[in-house]
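Work Package 4 report. The design task specified in the project plan requires that, given a folded chain encoded as structure tokens, an amino acid be chosen for each position. We show below one input record used in the internal validation round.
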């Protein structure tokens, strides 16, 4: 038996093949993807490679790293990890706060790695550990910056600024009192620079180690150079001190970063209601509860209705409908009988089964989690536009400052005056405006998105979304609501109301999702609970117990479902049978009537076939020897989905539907003119590979909800999780739609487009300002004080521009 060429799952004894496609495939979905999308080389330039033919035989761990905020952090942590004994390779991603480490367990233990990688203010920890408290930056800003910065600026306002405008000093600045005053200012400025500004200084250090100049380096140069000049001037007895510049630069940039972080934290706090799907205990066949870690291959586990199958395996005993939507994306439950394979993470819905654990004792859900971590750790964060500009701008500013100072000195000025020219250039280079350009624009975008029920998880969204070429939409839970409901009733020989009423009367004894949809629909029609109305159903068997019938089903009291009735019906994996008003009523699959004398009108045969072609479930209902109706059950498309996909296509983007559901269930989407391509029956392991192939030639956004979508969300340039999704999907996404409406997808693109435009406006103003101010600084027109005032004015304009609404819904 071979493995699938696309997703590497076992193909079974009869793999899917085609003459026009190379390879063997596990399903039609993988074959369709391979036929439409060419393979791409599995190369990651950022990851260290082993020697040709050499396979890494150590272990791999995934760590969460708190403190990463830019692409240079990734490079620094990878460099740090690579210097550790026993570490073969490392991949970090600031976009997901994840680092993957390949290591030799004989040289270094997994428990040691977090400590070794917790350096330079970064904190590495196991991903299972609770997230650290993130209130340190509030204390750092309010106490370190606000308190001590305010005290230093008070001395400037009272004693120094008046002298700059020709007024007599209140005290003798050249005497002991002046020295005492300046010493206090130096202490306060030191606290602001080295305590409040520590994250900025660390970012500058990291950028130097990674050889990637960034905005932190430019801000540190301006703040650090004014601090160094002022400290030297203080030591030689000068009174032209510019500690205020240091304080202003650090506080303004820190405030901008803090505001962005605060807005983002408030938005992500909205995610607390998302569901999770993790079970760490299991139940043995005898009913004993044990830890999942103690289970061995071949063990037999009991899974009751409503519980998740803990491991991949086979059904050893029993028959049940299994909901696979979370893991595979298939919207309709699949009936599993003895000998059938089941996947870990799927949900048993209507009857208990005994599952024999597979040979690897692994869960498909756990496999998806690991695949998600693999993708997250290899997904490099987007280097912010301002940091990309800083790569060239920082060396240019330093060179201009040095040349300006040297030229001033060469023309006969004193060394102090020459140093002031260089310092003025560094200050006037607008580190505050540039430092605020991104965080304030991003914070405004996060704020406006949150107002529309959209949580921006990664600020890389604002640069990624602008270049998206293809939007990949999941079907179940995204284009549809993922909830089974009664959609239509077709009758022949009885009224639709009578068909529904009698069907619900017997279906209330079944816990199958299709049965629940029928019962709930009738309850809604009657304004009450259909499970409470049991007076018209009498026992199909007289023993009142639970016994197997000829079809492999069982006779259950109806109060198994409602808790109020003493009536019983016969339940099988194909349907239910009971007696109502003296008539035998049969409700279920078309095959339930095969080989019997029951008649099925042609109109109902056609209705059932049409429902199947639409990806719905036709439920046949009959009594008195004749089928009299068909109930059509399925999930409903989301309101306005056509307008959404049309809008996405009109924006110049290609629209693709990618689902684990059947081709029949996706036909309505495949026929829509705005949808370019539809891939059906694609297993979750293959979704990520499909996205990877698409992303090889274009920028891809994925919109999904289930755990089966998480690897695809992580593999995309932009991942969007919808409100009804799982924690796993939310963890993989860059943005989460909290409101249950698909129209939030184009709104997300509108907000990101507006934010990106605002960011470029801020940067444009900052660079125009620099183009004017730097020559003035070199010419000596500006001194450090005027440069600081001009810098503040520029920053104020950036703040004002960023405060405006990014997207007003028009």
């Amino acid at each position: 038996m071979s493995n699938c060429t696309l997703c590497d799952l076992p193909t079974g004894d009869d793999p899917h093949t085609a003459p026009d496609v190379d390879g063997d495939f596990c399903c039609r979905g993988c074959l369709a993807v391979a036929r439409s999308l060419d393979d791409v080389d599995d190369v990651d330039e950022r990851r260290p490679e082993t020697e040709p033919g050499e396979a890494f035989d150590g272990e791999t761990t995934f760590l969460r790293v708190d403190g990463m905020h830019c692409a240079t952090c990734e490079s620094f942590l990878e460099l740090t990890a690579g210097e550790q004994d026993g570490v073969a390779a490392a991949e970090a991603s600031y976009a997901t706060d994840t680092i993957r480490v390949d290591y030799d367990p004989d040289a270094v233990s997994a428990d040691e790695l977090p400590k070794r990688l917790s350096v330079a203010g970064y904190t590495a920890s196991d991903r299972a550990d609770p997230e650290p408290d993130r209130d340190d930056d509030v204390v750092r800003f309010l106490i370190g910056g606000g308190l001590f910065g305010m005290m230093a600026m008070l001395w400037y306002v009272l004693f120094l600024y008046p002298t700059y405008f020709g007024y007599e000093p209140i005290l003798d600045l050249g005497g002991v009192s002046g020295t005492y005053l300046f010493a206090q200012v130096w202490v306060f400025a030191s606290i602001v620079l080295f305590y409040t500004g520590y994250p900025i200084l660390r970012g500058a250090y990291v950028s130097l180690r990674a050889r990637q100049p960034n905005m932190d380096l430019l801000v540190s140069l301006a703040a650090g150079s004014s601090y160094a000049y002022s400290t030297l001037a203080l030591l030689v007895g000068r009174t032209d001190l510019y500690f205020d510049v240091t304080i202003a630069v650090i506080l303004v940039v820190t405030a901008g970063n803090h505001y962005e972080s605060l807005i983002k934290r408030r938005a992500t706090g909205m995610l607390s209601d998302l569901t999770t799907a993790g079970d760490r205990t299991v139940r043995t066949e005898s009913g004993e509860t044990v830890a999942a870690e103690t289970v061995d291959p071949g063990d037999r586990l009991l899974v009751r209705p409503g519980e998740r199958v803990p491991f991949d395996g086979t059904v050893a005993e029993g028959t049940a409908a299994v909901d696979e939507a979370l893991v595979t994306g298939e919207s309709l439950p699949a009936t599993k009988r003895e000998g059938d394979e089941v996947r870990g993470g799927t949900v048993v819905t209507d009857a208990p089964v005994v599952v024999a654990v597979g040979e690897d004792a692994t869960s498909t859900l756990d496999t998806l989690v690991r695949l998600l971590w693999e993708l997250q750790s290899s997904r490099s964060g987007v280097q912010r536009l301002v940091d990309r500009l800083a790569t060239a701008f920082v060396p240019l500013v330093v060179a201009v400052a040095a040349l300006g100072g040297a030229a001033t000195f060469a023309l006969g000025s004193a060394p102090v005056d020459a140093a002031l020219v260089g310092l003025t250039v560094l200050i006037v280079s607008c580190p505050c405006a540039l430092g605020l350009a991104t965080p304030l624009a991003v914070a405004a975008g996060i704020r406006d998105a949150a107002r529309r029920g959209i949580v921006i998880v990664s600020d890389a969204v604002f640069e990624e979304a602008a270049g998206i070429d293809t939007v990949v939409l999941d079907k179940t839970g995204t284009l549809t609501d993922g909830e089974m409901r009664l959609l239509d009733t077709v009758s022949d020989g009885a009224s639709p109301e009578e068909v529904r009423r009698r069907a619900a009367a017997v279906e209330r004894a079944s816990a199958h999702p299709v049965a629940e949809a029928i019962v709930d629909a009738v309850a809604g029609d009657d304004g009450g609970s259909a499970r409470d109305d049991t007076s018209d159903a009498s026992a199909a068997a007289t023993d009142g117990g639970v016994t197997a019938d000829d079809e492999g089903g069982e006779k259950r009291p109806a109060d198994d479902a409602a808790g109020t009735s003493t009536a019983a019906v016969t339940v099988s994996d194909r349907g239910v049978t009971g007696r109502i008003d003296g008539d035998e009523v049969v409700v279920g699959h078309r095959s339930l009537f095969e080989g019997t004398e029951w008649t099925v009108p042609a109109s109902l045969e056609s209705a059932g076939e049409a429902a199947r072609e639409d990806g719905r479930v036709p439920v046949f209902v009959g009594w008195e020897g004749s089928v009299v109706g068909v109930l059509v059950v399925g999930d409903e498309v989301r309101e306005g989905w056509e307008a959404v996909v049309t809008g996405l296509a009109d924006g110049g983007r290609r629209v693709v539907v990618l689902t684990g559901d059947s081709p029949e269930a996706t036909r309505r989407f495949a026929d829509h003119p705005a949808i370019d391509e539809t891939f059906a029956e694609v297993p979750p392991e293959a979704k990520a590979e499909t996205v990877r192939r698409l992303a090889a030639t274009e920028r891809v956004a994925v919109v999904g909800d289930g755990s089966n979508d998480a690897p695809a969300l992580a593999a995309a340039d932009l991942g969007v999780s919808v409100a009804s999704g799982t924690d796993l999907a939310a963890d993989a996404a860059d943005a989460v739609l909290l409101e249950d409406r698909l129209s939030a997808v184009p709104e997300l693109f509108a907000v990101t487009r507006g934010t990106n435009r605002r960011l470029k406006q801020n940067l444009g103003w900052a660079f125009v300002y620099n183009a004017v101010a730097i020559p003035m600084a070199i010419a000596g027109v500006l001194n450090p004080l005027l440069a600081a005032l001009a810098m503040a004015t520029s920053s104020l304009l950036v703040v004002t521009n960023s405060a405006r609404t990014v997207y007003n819904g028009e």
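DSSP finds 26 helices and 30 strands in the chain. Validation will be extended to a larger panel in the next phase.
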